[in-house]
Amino acid sequence: MTEIAGVLNSMAALVIVSLLGYAAARLGFLAGPAREGISGLVFNITLPCTILNAAGQADRSLGGGHVANGLLLGLSFFLIMLAATYAIIALVKPSQEERPLYLFMGIFTNIVFAGFPVIEALYGSNAVFLGSIVFAVFNLLFYSFGVMLITMGDSGISVDMHRILSAPLVASAAMALFLLDIHLPAFAAEACELAGSATSPLGMMLVGVAIAESDFAEVLRERRLYLFEFLRFIALPVVLFMPLRALGMDEMLLGILVVLLAMPVGSIAPAVATAYRLGPDLPARGIVVTTVFSFATFPLLALLLTL
Predict the structure, then answer these.
(1) pTM beyond cutoff 0.90
(2) Angle formed at CA 217 by CA 215 and CA 222, multiple of 5 degrees
(3) Averaged pLDDT of the chain
């Protein structure tokens, strides 16, 4: 009972931090350039520090099998999202023009700004290290194979090599430290821990900012999104959780998979969609619907995982 209460308290704290981000955006503290600057800060500075710190604190006795599990989980995560999203799109029946956008929303989720804070709150540093490997595999697959599928038939397909390589490079450095049992100097480890501690609060604040910048009138008219949200971001994680747990899947691996599958649409989805010649409006509305629902589903998900 104490463990469940602690997890629910952590989830409630993350929701409150998101609401602080919402308030900051409404008050003008996190608007425009400030929001973009913080987003870049999290993705390029504090998140790598979090990953390196997690690698330093990870249990060395887990060995190379820990890394192999992360690679396998990353591949499974991407394939499950892809297959499930295709099936859900067939049920939701969006227009032909909107199908690529729904596929995009179902795959491009908020792993960085929401996923890592939730994983860390539930499972600690070992899980963050594993999650970073999952994220590296996801990056490689999304920005290559995933983009090819989403933009199928578009002669102007492009690949963002910076986004493909950034996460794997950091995760590769972390894996090398872990596998070779190399420890950062004390001052460097403390610096990574200090800078990395900003990832969770800043990431969750940016989730609140995404809601603050939305047009709720437009969101309310997008009824098909509600069914898509329920099937993809609520039903899918729960439906997968029960048989995988019954089959005896490792608790941490299962928890990471379920948490990441439940993450809302990525907060930078409109910008990424625009870069690949997809309309930004539907992803922007998808962010609002999935993020607002996540305020209720995160605590319930945490409760499910601790039962």
Answers:
(1) no
(2) 100
(3) 80
